[in-house]
Design a protein that fits this description.
The complex is a heterodimer of chains A (367) and B (217). Chain A has 367 residues and is α/β, with parallel strands linked by helices. Helices cover 38% and strands 18% of the residues of chain A. Chain A is built from 13 helices and twelve strands. A five-stranded mixed β-sheet of chain A has the order 5-4-3-6-7. A five-stranded mixed β-sheet of chain A has the order 10-9-8-11-12, sandwiched between helices. Chain A is globular, with a radius of gyration of 23 Å. The chains are: A alpha/beta (367), B alpha/beta (217). Chain B: Pfam families: Lipase_GDSL_2.
């Protein structure tokens, strides 16, 4: 019997020297733990990683080094202390991974591509009419394929997957049905095999909240209330990073559809997606009244909630133009003193952006 | 006060490239001296560099005292308590007389790690932090050392990978010196003054990155 201490080395994880991502199955729990921590913090020293994970300094060293070689993690800028050498924080490499998100809204299907830190690299809103499949063409697949071209060719094997933001069953419209068929799991399998990427699905509002929680404005918040102002107003409650929703499909008709309908009565037709009309002239009273309806609804939700839990932060996510969103945010903040109200980070397309975070959860994070 | 032992060969001793055996860089110019300067007064850097030191071999020509393994234990015990042990060896194991592939040299490094763990010269009898440093690879032209180091050039380029696999396997820190410095063309396997400086600075950052709980910044 040889002395097994001197058997050939059997590394915990031989640093991956090939380019591209390791197969999901080989990513250990400890690696996921370190990656989760880095996703939630901009720059973290190895000491902090050790303290927060309970891993030994040498284990952290092995894991960080291997993640560094895999290109998922990079050294940040040196921070000079009073004595001793500069401290170098570790951070995620933005180009370490990419992900695709697709959402199906009231007026359009959105495709986004994000990098590893949630930066939007590509966004396009497709009218449903453009995407209807025919016998020979699958335009949704083509749209996704066109989107991933934004990722430089040599990094394309770093695309972690595709997240689909799926509306509540109650609100699944004919458009989505025509697009992906009645059977979501088989649509998922079809896209997976056509594009060779894993596909993940989640409720769209939950996905948007999850994006804000992972790498958006709520990254450092364990508890917050999330409002999504799209065609309708939806809400989620996040407690201890866990996302809760009320009864399925619950939403209020104080969203952008409601504004569009009110403006239609004035003879102003618009699709909230793009061309917004002038809201300062004759439309002003209608616009003001709509904002009052929306913020009153938000206030009553929050006030009811405050009877049971003490939340101090609200995230408002909407693809409405920044001026509209900011005005509404300021008005809500005024109505709810003592509560911090912020606009979301994924405002270019909140649901698709949030959905793009799904592959990261599954492939890099502790569940 | 924390202490780090730098256990190495002629490149830790500070041998000047292409010069006589007693010609040595000054204390503060050698990488361990640079490390001391960078880490500051809260650290004591202990230098243990011996020219010709191997990982685990008695050298039939240069003598049994070149064996790093037999000297490591008394050395650790003499300097305990140690918070960190840095080992940079491997080049001398590549001499033709030992006929070792790079993977065996890594096994030799592994033995030293086991010995440190067994002796546990860390605070309160614990195992100190251990860092394996792969020496910078040799240059192609090693002058009159050609026959002594026959076949060593290729192997010296494999050391970093083999050492890292060993470090990963044993769960110890690792640094590739070749990532920050090169050997000096004067003899092709010793490092010059500039290399000592960059290696010392880089290792100070590595030492710091380990993270020391009671560290005051």
């Amino acid at each position: 019997m040889p002395d097994m201490r001197f058997a050939p080395p059997n590394p915990l994880r031989i640093a991956d020297r090939a380019s591209g991502l390791n197969a999901p199955s080989v990513r250990s729990y400890n690696e996921r733990l370190v990656l989760s921590l880095l996703l939630q913090n901009e720059g973290t020293t190895r000491l902090e990683i050790g303290e927060k994970t309970g891993l030994s300094a040498q284990t952290v060293s092995v894991i960080v080094r291997s993640l560094e070689q895999e290109g998922l993690v990079a050294k940040g800028e040196a921070q000079r202390g009073r004595v001793g050498p500069p401290t170098i924080p570790m951070m995620l490499n933005p180009e370490g991974a990419f992900s695709v998100g697709v959402s199906f809204g009231a007026w359009s299907a959105d495709v986004v591509v994000i990098d590893f830190v949630g930066g939007v690299r590509f966004h396009k809103a497709h009218a449903y009419a453009e995407l209807h499949p025919t016998a020979t063409e699958a335009p949704l697949q083509a749209a996704i394929e066109a989107a991933v071209e934004v990722v430089p060719a040599h990094l394309r094997d770093r695309i972690a997957g595709i997240g689909l933001a799926v509306p509540d069953e109650a609100t699944i419209g004919d458009d989505l049905m025509r697009l992906v068929g009645r059977d979501l799991p088989s649509a998922q399998a079809r896209i997976e095999s056509a594009l060779g990427l894993p596909v993940f699905m989640q409720n769209d509002i939950t996905a948007a909240a999850s994006g804000e929680s992972l790498f958006g404005v709520a990254r450092s918040l364990s508890d917050f209330v999330f409002f999504y102002l799209g065609a309708r107003l939806h809400s989620r409650l996040i407690l201890n990073h866990q996302i809760y929703n009320g009864k399925a499909g619950a939403s209020s008709d104080v969203g952008l559809s409601n504004l569009a309908d009110a403006l239609a009565e004035l003879g102003m037709t618009f699709r909230p997606l793009n061309e917004w009309p002038d809201l300062t002239g004759t439309a002003k009273p209608v616009y003001d009244a709509w904002r009052l309806r929306a913020r009153t609804r938000i206030r009553s939700s929050v006030e009811a909630l405050l009877d049971f839990v003490r939340v101090q932060s609200i995230v408002l996510s909407t693809y409405a133009p920044l001026a509209v969103a900011e005005l509404l945010r300021a008005e809500i903040a005024e109505m709810l003193p003592g509560i911090d109200v912020q606009l979301g980070r994924g405002m270019i397309s909140p649901k698709a952006w949030g959905a793009a975070s799904l592959p990261y959860h599954s492939r890099f994070m502790v569940q | 006060m924390r202490s780090v032992l730098c256990f190495g060969d002629s490149n830790t001793y500070g041998q000047m490239p292409g010069r006589g055996p007693l010609e040595r860089f000054a204390r503060d110019a050698r990488w361990s001296g640079v490390l001391q300067r960078e880490l500051g007064p809260k650290w004591q850097v202990i230098e243990e560099g011996l020219s010709g030191r191997t990982t685990v071999h008695d050298d039939p020509i240069e003598g049994a005292h070149k064996n790093g393994r037999s000297y490591l234990k008394p050395c650790l015990q003499s300097h305990a308590t140690l918070d960190l042990v840095i080992i940079m060896l491997g080049t001398n194991d590549l001499k033709a007389r030992f006929g070792q592939p790079a993977s065996e040299v890594a096994m030799g490094m592994g033995c030293l790690v086991y010995d440190i763990r067994e002796l546990a010269p860390g605070p309160g009898g614990t195992v100190p932090e251990i860092m394996i440093v792969a020496p910078p690879p040799m240059l192609e032209d090693i002058k009159e050392w050609r026959s002594i180091f026959a076949g060593a050039y290729e192997k010296s380029h494999q050391l970093a990978l083999e050492f890292e696999i060993m470090a990963d396997s044993l769960g110890v820190h690792f640094f590739n010196a070749g990532s920050v410095c090169r050997c000096d063309p004067a003899d092709g396997f010793h490092i010059g003054a500039e290399a000592h400086e960059s290696l010392g600075v880089a290792l100070a950052q590595e030492v710091d990155a380990i993270g020391w709980v009671d560290q005051e910044r």
